[in-house]
């Protein structure tokens, strides 16, 4: 076996493995899996090309060293099982060596299903937006309800100090990503997560590198919904027309939530109170009470309502659920305040899809209605670096007072005419009366912020990656004497 061609017959977990190696260990899902496997007593090693906080710090805290860079030598110990992350390509030197050695292998979602979901009631949070926050709300609320859930989530949950836990209770919360699984298993990750219950927040076109159009996205979500058994449950946001349409084919009970009068669970009278919100919840027309969530934005109110809808169906009392939500500590990189220096607040947020950018900025505007809001945007995903969302981005920055856009790292093999342009976005925003500038690199953005930032400003960094450490660099820069 050579040339990086893996033997399909080895795509399984061996009996009683002891040493498990993860290729691409610093991905949020892979790091979560590494932590859970270690907690179960396995010896865990790993490697990754790009190692940066918070995942590098998280793994180091567990005593799991992430080897920098991929190399055949990382498999010299001949682990009993190799788990291959979705960032790994067939030409990766460790994938080639894996094939040469003939070792058993799994994708990350396959491993989660095999090691952690077989004997649990899997609660999967799916949707284009809000998966990480909603999964975190669900897991922490279950924890406060005393059922000790397991979870695997795409962000570090403050209540747990990590993004995964095995748990001893009957439920396991999984963030259900629709992105594909691995180069040898080109299906959406959530197809492996064996849902008993699910939340569907929204369905929009995304991941233009693997989905041709919205119809392809819908087909993947429809297949996922079809996996929920008749005695399971689906909570779906009826404010989203595509999600509502797909829910119509479910074999299980469907509980609609949203702001519309036709929803089983309805959110009304939303009020912002700084970085918190309050809203009223009604179930089938009956007022249930007020809910407080220590996060801003209407979209987070809907995320909390989704958790209420699912847990209430599973038999938990409304008042107890609401108490758990009110104590939520947050998730790293989701409207996370990284620091305040000289009266300037720096916020980190994962938003990169146009809808997520719009909702995040709207939420922050409600939280700081009288402050200057500066949005710093890095188009980094495969979709955001393509021209597919160029026009949509021009419609989502209205809540910001100033927009600074970093030029993207070009996509190899794609004509520049089909790639995103920060210069064009900034020009289009200026034509709408929104102050906007484009920059070639992160250093130029930091220099600009050093010149313009003043007390009272709120600077939100929008990126799904490390953004060259801009958050800490900006805070350090602001702290220096003028």
Return the structural class.
Answer: alpha/beta
The coarse overall form would be: globular
Largest β sheet strand count, sense and barrel closure: 10 strands, mixed
Please state roughly what percent of the residues sit in beta strands, choosing from under 5%, 5-15%, 15-25%, 25-35%, 35-45% or over 45%: 25-35%
* Spatial gap, N to C terminus: 62 Å
Overview of the molecule:
It is a single chain. With 482 residues, this protein is α/β, with parallel strands linked by helices. 30% of the residues lie in helices and 26% in strands. It contains 14 helices and 23 strands. It has helices spanning 28-39, 55-62, 93-101, 108-116, 131-144, 214-226, 241-247, 298-313, 318-326, 354-367, 390-393, 422-431, 442-452, 470-479, and strands at 19-23, 43-48, 66-68, 81-84, 105-107, 121-126, 150-157, 162-165, 171-176, 180-182, 185-188, 195-200, 233-237, 254-258, 265-273, 276-283, 286-293, 336-341, 344-349, 373-377, 402-406, 435-439, 458-462. A 10-stranded mixed sheet has the order 8-7-9-6-12-13-14-15-16-17, sandwiched between helices. Strands 18-19-23-20-21-22 form a 6-stranded mixed sheet, with helices on both faces. It has a 5-stranded parallel sheet with strand order 3-2-1-4-5, sandwiched between helices. A hairpin with a 2-residue loop joins strand 16 and strand 17. It is globular, with a radius of gyration of 22 Å. The protein starts with 18 loop residues before the first strand and ends with a helix.
């Amino acid at each position: 076996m050579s040339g990086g061609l893996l033997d399909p017959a080895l795509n399984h977990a061996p009996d009683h493995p002891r040493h498990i190696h993860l290729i691409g260990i610093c991905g949020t899902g892979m790091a979560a899996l590494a932590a859970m496997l270690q907690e179960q007593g396995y010896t865990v090693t790993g490697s990754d090309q790009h190692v940066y906080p918070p995942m590098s710090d998280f793994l180091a805290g567990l005593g799991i060293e992430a080897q920098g860079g991929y190399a055949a030598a990382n498999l010299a110990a001949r682990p009993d099982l190799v788990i291959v992350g979705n960032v790994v390509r067939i030409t990766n030197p460790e994938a080639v060596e894996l094939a040469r050695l003939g070792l058993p292998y799994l994708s990350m979602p396959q491993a989660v299903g095999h090691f952690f979901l077989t004997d649990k009631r899997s609660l999967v949070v799916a949707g284009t937006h809000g998966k990480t926050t909603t999964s975190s709300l669900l897991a922490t609320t279950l924890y406060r309800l005393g059922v000790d859930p397991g979870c695997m989530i795409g962000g570090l949950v403050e209540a747990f100090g990590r993004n995964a836990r095995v748990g001893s209770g009957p439920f396991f919360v999984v963030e259900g990503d629709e992105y594909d699984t691995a180069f040898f298993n080109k299906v959406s990750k959530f197809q492996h997560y064996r849902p008993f219950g699910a939340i569907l927040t929204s369905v929009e076109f995304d991941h233009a590198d693997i989905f041709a159009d919205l119809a392809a996205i819908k087909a993947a979500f429809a297949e996922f919904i079809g996996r929920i058994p008749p005695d399971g449950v689906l909570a779906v946001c009826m404010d989203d027309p595509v999600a509502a349409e797909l829910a119509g084919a479910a074999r299980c009970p469907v509980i609609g939530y949203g702001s519309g009068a036709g929803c089983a669970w309805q959110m009304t009278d939303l009020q912002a109170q700084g970085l918190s919100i309050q809203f009223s919840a009604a179930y089938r027309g009956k007022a249930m009470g007020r809910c407080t969530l220590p996060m801003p934005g209407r979209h987070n109110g809907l995320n909390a309502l989704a958790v209420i809808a699912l847990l209430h169906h599973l038999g938990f009392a409304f008042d107890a659920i609401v108490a758990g939500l009110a104590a939520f500590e947050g998730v790293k990189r989701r409207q996370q305040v990284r620091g305040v220096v000289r009266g300037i607040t720096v916020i980190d947020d994962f938003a990169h899809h146009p809808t997520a950018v719009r909702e995040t900025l709207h939420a922050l505007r409600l939280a700081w209605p009288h402050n200057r809001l500066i949005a710093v945007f890095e188009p980094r995903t495969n979709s955001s670096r393509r021209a597919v969302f160029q026009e949509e981005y021009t419609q989502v920055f209205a809540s910001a007072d100033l927009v600074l856009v970093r030029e993207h790292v070009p996509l190899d093999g794609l004509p520049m005419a089909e790639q995103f342009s920060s210069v064009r976005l900034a020009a289009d925003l200026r034509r709408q009366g929104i102050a906007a500038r484009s920059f070639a690199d992160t250093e130029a953005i930091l220099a600009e912020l050093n010149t313009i930032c003043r007390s009272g400003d709120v600077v939100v960094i929008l990126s799904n990656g490390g953004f060259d450490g801009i958050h800490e660099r900006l805070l350090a820069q602001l702290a220096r004497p003028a």
